Amino acid sequence: MLRCDAHHGQISLIFINSYMRVRKQQRLQEYDYRSPGIYFVTITLDNKKFVFGKIIDEKMYLNKYGKILNECWRDLPNHYMNIELDEYVIMPDHFHGIIQIIDRIYVRNGFKPFRTGNKIHGLPEIIRAFKTFSSRKINDLQSKKSFKWHKSFNDRIIRKNGYELERFRNYIINNPKNFE
Question: Which domain does 99 fall in, by range?
């Protein structure tokens, strides 16, 4: 379908493919994902293949790709000073993690604080970087360069530090036992 819009004397043509799937808005509207908070994230593979290892006797065993993913996740605080990592689990075809965005512009260096920069990165940027870093490293080991994450990720804002945080930690810890 072709739609023609006239606006302030300019004509623009907009091509609309009726077969294109409209992507659901993943993030909570009107919420600033740069603000301090605790987030539970789930990231899945595009093809749902078991890429990161195997579960044997309710325990996850990482292969070389799973080890790359582990390394990339644990390296994130070296790139983003405003985050702290909590529980996480790498599953054969997806990833769950808890990440905390903290209000950290200054860090201590001896007696004087020094500025680490004005840029406070939000959750979408941090997850984008994690997916990019891990994809590049994994594809470097593959001749076909076929590794691909799903386009987005799922998140849950953990509003309570007590019960709800423990519930998500337990979910992550027990995920290999419950995997089918």
Answer: 32-178
